[in-house]
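Re: duplicated header lines in exported structure tokens

Our pipeline writes sequence and tokens for each protein into one text file. With two proteins the header for the second block appears twice in some exports. Here is an export where it did not happen, for reference. First protein block:
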Amino acid sequence: AIANVKINLKSLDNQEYKENIKNEYLKLKKESSRLKAEIIELAN
């Protein structure tokens, strides 16, 4: 789903909206990486 958001950004016209979506995508990506690391830590 996140990959689809990234692909769809290219077809949007509103620059501010694109920036907001991109920032949200980057926050979610960072948070998912953090959660993955936390899960791995807890599993060990």
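Second protein block, exported in the same file:
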Amino acid sequence: MYLSPVNMLMMLVLMLSSLMAISSSNWFFIWFSMELNMLSFIPILLYNNKIMEIEASIKYLITQSIASSMLLMSSMMLWNNTMNLMLFYYMLCMSLLMKLGSFPCYYWFPSVMASISWINCMVLSTWQKIIPIFIMFSMINLENKMIIMICLLNLLIGGIFGMKSSNMKIIMAYSSISHLGWMLLIKLVNMVSLLYFYFLSYIMMILPLFNMFNKLKINNFNSISMMNKINMTSILMLSLMILSMAGLPPFTGFFLKLIVIYSVLKINITYLILIIIVSILSLYFYLNISYNMLLNSYMNNNDMMKFKFNKVFSILSIFLYTPMIMML
């Protein structure tokens, strides 16, 4: 379905536009590449021509157009010397945060994610973030307090609203917002290599997870309750992927966060401790998903097996998850 000639052409334009943007230093050319990127992604969203996808495409078009207009306006005013440099940075930063689906312009992101396919969710959560993240790290200088505030609020929003949702795509959207907070935290030390490493590792975690959600047709918690016909290996692999996204040791997500913490440790340890505490909120919905998956996989077994599983899982919850949470 996604290998149609139109989709292949749009995906090619999508990739080329991203490469054009990150290889240019001209603001107009960057803006043009971002517009080309946006216009090539919309036909991909509309491929199935469903009402929800059309609605999601309109939301995406409106928010991205507003962000692009802000970026172009700030660039033109700076070129004409009619704008203060700091005001230019704030306006440009706001437009990029809107494109990323970050605080304070995150509202559109979960809404769009909930209405599109898992494959498109994958593209929106990964590839579509490349250009704005690159610009933010290479061309914008922001105060440390502002960066920390954005990171904190991203983690707080991702944790609180992720806990309140039962839609898996919305949960993954808020998970993406939380991980974005960790990526923006790297801006404090301006380690572009660390950003590339974190972002690439995040993509490697997202791709198999979303692919399994797509194959198993998991869209909400009701879908999890219907997973008793799926083999245990698939459920176990899916649970491990989710725990890695949660940042629990000894999985990849934990070491990513540990590297970021170690890198920014000397900047401001007070704010860093606060960020770590707030990030624990995200653990709730990750552990909730994993617990439901593992529990429902045993629902058709005999009572003794259920008892043994619940007993073992309770012991693991006390003696394994508690130190893991403390290590975060």
